Amino acid sequence: MKKYLLLGLSLILSASLWAQERTVSGTVTDADTGEPVPGANVVVKGTTTGTITDFDGNYQLSVGENTTLVFTFVGYAPLEVAVGSRAVVDASLALDISELSEVVVVGYGSQQKKEITSSVVSLDEESFNKGNINDPSQLLQGKVPGLSVYNKGGDPNETSTIRLRGISTVGANTEPLVVIDGVIGASLNNVDPNDIETINVLKDGSAAAIYGSRGSSGVILVTTKSGKRGGGVSASYNTFVSAATVANEQPIMTPSEYIEAGGNDLGSRTDWQDEVTRTGWSNVHNLSVSGGSDKTTFRVSANYRNINGILEKSGFDQINTRASLNHYALNDRLKIGVNMSLTNRESNYSFNEALRYAVLFNPTAPIRNDQGNFFQAILFDNFNPVAILEQNINDGKRKEMNFNANLEYSLTDQLTVNANYGQQYGDDIRGEYYPRTSLFRGFNRGGLARRSVEDSRFTLFETYATYATGFSNVDLSVSAGYSFQEEEREDFYIELGDFPSDALGYYALETSGDRVTGKQLIDVASSATPESRIIAFFGRLNMTIDNGIFLNASIRREGSTKLGKDNQWGIFPAVGAGVDLTRYLDLGTFNVFKFRAGYGVTGSLPNESGLAQDLVEYDFQEGGRARLTRAANPDLKWEEKAEINVGIDFAAAGGKLSGTIDVYNRDISDFILERTVDAAIYETDRRFENAGKLNTKGIEVALNYQVANGSKFSWTPGIVASSYKTVLEEFIIDEQMRANLGAPGQNSTSMVRVAVGEEIGQIWGPVFTGDVEDGSQVLKDVNGDGNLNTAQGNALEDDGDFEQIGKGIPDLEIGWTNQITYGNWDLNAFFRGAFGHSLVNTFRAFYEPIDPGAINSYNRIKSDKQIPEITNAQFSSLYVEKADFFRLDNITLGYNFDMSSSSSFKSVRAYFSVQNAFTITDYSGIDPDPVLQDRGTVDNGGRLEGQPDVLSPGIDRRYNYFTARTFTLGLNVGF
């Protein structure tokens, strides 16, 4: 690693710098107001040499012969001025209503928005979602067409499920690649939402191909806030307090209804859902100090979050600190930047299972018996929900630290070299303890303890050079570079039982009777990843012709140790072109109409290392032996995505209407899957191989309209919409059933059909006719053969009476933003909706039928879809519901106080926000949000089985967290 760093530094420091130069200076002002424009970019045309204006709009820059200066600033049209023999060059910038001059961060550099030929969306702080935002991905929810962000229920300890343009892989990483301040693969958990300045989303293959084998699921580029040059020192304090309340509870029988239906009256009246939930009060504090001189800028921040969920004992305390330092030297030719961040989170994960058992538990049972102990009936799958929360422990601590150092040096006016080195560390420890008195899990083991530790490290070194020049009416930029990435991870897990005392919980593992007596109930596992490295060489060309024709191309050659030794290297090309037709045609009301098209190839790597290698495990049978359990595959390669994207960017004259339309087609092939193979050839029957193919077609639209833009009142609504369809074209099994419904009583029931040549997301089952006989549903003879075959194991039989009864993936997702200002007031109302999807309401499937043999001990769901005559549980179309919804996701009202006469405060803003204000839907469950992947059933409401299944969307599981409605009062102060 050191040799690569020294090589980059030697390239920077060894080149000749000096040329025939002189100094020019001037002031940049607003053309309408005459006010100075601080922070404007001043660049020598055709080069990367430049500076920015200070707080008063002044600049100073060394230039060569025959120089033209380009002045740019966000929201203003670029201005080119020939210097000639002048020593003073002033510039007056006019507002750019199209905003296509905005500089957008893309992979390894930036481009003006008008030059981009791929599908890229850029959001700044003003566009982010507001309120109680604790996960940075929630800033984007509903804001980017094609980007789905869902956190089912809103568990504060659960990260959101993120999908960009649907399913991007079956056997590898489904989440977009995150790049924070140039560090590839950085953790979103290690950046506080208050510290984010912009987020750019690279949606299509031509934009993401520069990131090679990690870009198939899209790329999210995060730029954190930094100090401004020449802006002096400033500080800000942001704080809010929020109250999260239960938005919806499961509809169940009241005690009187329960008794009337035949339930045992135990004498009490207990609202169990109310007992395990609460008003979750949270408070957040963010303090930052930033500043800068002409040579050095800095920003430091500290963030404290005390977050409490609506489920008792769920939430976390988190401290995050971040610091950035930038220094400019050698007449602004050298820029040195350093970023550091540290996060320390202590979480109480609580038990989502308490929510499920609060639905089931007898509503006439007391919380405690006369002796003061928790009341508990000895029944199958029936536990006192309050006891689950009060008796047991489920918590953890996570620490993350990252830093990176960046050097940017202009060797000449045209040539710039960049070097970036970074590391990220993660340390996660979790613990569970179930005492001997806990019937939920510890009773049968004499107390049960679980401990797990995971330690990870990621290292990055990249260097690249950019050459920019111009001739005639052509501007050209060429970049080439090298990337080195290395990751390591190790973990440890232990489970023990039979403890003599519960006093020390999981801190006294050595007292376990399992260990002392040698019982075979101990569960121990430990692992470390094999060597995992990525090495890549990449290049890119950007060309602008006549300020109206734009060409982009890139290529990346990359190798990964996660792949087979004979197939570790791959090539990822991309090409794109665009033209602003208004440069050459009279399009009437349009002052911008850019047509663009791009093609790119990206890859995807598995999360695990060593899948291409032999796996040898130790077998304790027959006296103990090492046994090959998975064969190596030297030809294992990356998953590959090839994508074509065609788009239009437009703005109508006057700037009131603007928008984008994108249409895409993507083919994803060579999934990395574990398959059954011939043991006679491979010495074992398991092996990872490449197989399968998906095709996704979709359309995305974003529209903004400026209804009013006066000095006193403004209103700008915007809408984003997306739709896609994914078809499984090839797979290792032609047709199969997935997504098991689970216990009790329905372990043989699978709910999702996956078939080659058909669309992903089919919820599959028998069809309820509406009639009931002897307490059971009368099901439809789907194939009309006169023979009813609805046994779950026969779902795929030729004579099976099953069909598609729902669709797990939405046909349409929309987001509607309204930004309104009136004087010192501002209002942001954001609506979100999804249409065309269904959900399996598993609560109804299990607990709605009133079984006479069970109603005396278990409560039941009571919905308007309930049919009282049904007493036998049977999965069918009756429990699959359309889940279309339209929701006021976030509404924020703020007031900006006039601080013009204050010598202490620059700005003061107070605001009130409501999240999940209301939802319009016919879904009878608690949350109609789509479920894009299935995490399977649980063992007694506990540990999840396996990895999420992206081929099984649409299952609303019983362990989902309840949905919250959150009220937030906040204050932003600038000093």
From TrEMBL:
Membrane protein topology class: Multi-pass membrane protein
Subcellular locations according to the entry: Cell outer membrane
Signal peptide: 1-19
Residue span, TonB-dependent receptor-like beta-barrel domain: 371-916
GO cellular component: cell outer membrane
Cross-referenced Pfam families: CarbopepD_reg_2, Plug, TonB_dep_Rec_b-barrel
Gene3D superfamilies: Carboxypeptidase-like, regulatory domain, TonB-dependent receptor, beta-barrel domain, TonB-dependent receptor, plug domain
Family named by the database record: Belongs to the TonB-dependent receptor family.
Protein name, per record: Iron complex outermembrane receptor protein
Organism expressing this protein natively: Marinoscillum furvescens DSM 4134
